[in-house]
Amino acid sequence: MWAMPARRIVIVVYPGVQPLDAVGPAEAFGGAARLIPGSYEVTVVAPERVSLESRFGGFGLLPASSLAECIEPIDTLIVAGGFGSRTAHEIPGLINWIRDAAGRARRTASVCTGAFVLAAAGLLDGRRATTHWASCDELRERFPTITVDAAPIFVRDGDVWTSAGVTAGIDLSLALIEDDLGAESAREIARWLVVFLQRPGGQAQFSAQLASQPAARAPLRELQAWIVEHVDADLRVDALAERVAMSPRNFARAFRREVGLTPASFVEAVRVESARRRLERGAEPVDEIACRVGFGTPETMRRAFSRRLGVAPAEYRSRFYRDPQTSAL
Description:
Elements: E1 7-12, H1 19-35, E2 40-46, E3 52-53, E4 60-61, E5 65-66, E6 74-79, H2 94-103, E7 105-110, H3 114-120, E8 128-129, H4 136-142, E9 147-148, E10 154-157, E11 160-163, H5 168-181, H6 183-193, H7 208-211, H8 218-229, H9 237-243, H10 248-259, H11 263-281, H12 286-292, H13 298-309, H14 313-320
Parallel strand pairs: 1-2, 1-6, 2-5, 6-7, 7-11, 8-9
Antiparallel strand pairs: 3-4, 10-11
């Protein structure tokens, strides 16, 4: 039986919040409280206790408490994101309250663009952080003291955690719960929520195709598609340049300018994605997968996975492999 005082989870919302940024963590911690009674107490607070209308969903979110009413000790402070995060600093007292609340909390976190609110409060200065992939450049430009990492699902830097977009807040919450209660409790909550336990913090936010952009010229666009379909081919710069009848130097420059990635980076991302799908869907040995997707050796694939996902192929499989005999259950 749980004998310690309940850890108080305070989720901060405001006008223009993305409801799922708040509801996802609330459900995760609420599930933990049901699984282990007394483990958590969840409160949603806002500058005022008024209904916050969803911009797109046609419903409202009614906070349980106002900031002024939230005077109890805080274990975990979570700031939700949303289109209102960019102007949250204009809400009287909000940034100061978050700064003060973080000072009395054991740990502080943001979901999606809630990172902009933490940044406005000075809580990310000198730290590594992430946010929704589409907002990473803006966060980097507006707050140059932050080391913004666009790739991970979530980032932990000391007692401050930040997550990627929207549903990544659930992954972040499961990681916080695992940190508190252990892996088995987090795994059980994930089963209740019907989500994976858990996407590792280093798992990429998006695929190689989303990470890049279609080339402007048709030959390079066609080459991008060909690379995806021929991951085991010779994809060195010289060979790719020959396919589009360009010199290697001009090809490399044009590809990077139009796609946003170097040819080598794009090829590695595509190969990691192909290997990732194989690890999730089948039981092929890692060395066979490394050959089939063009890495050649397991060590080369391991290094690529470590760079891009923050985990080794074997660890990725242990988290994401779905047995075809049970995946439909």
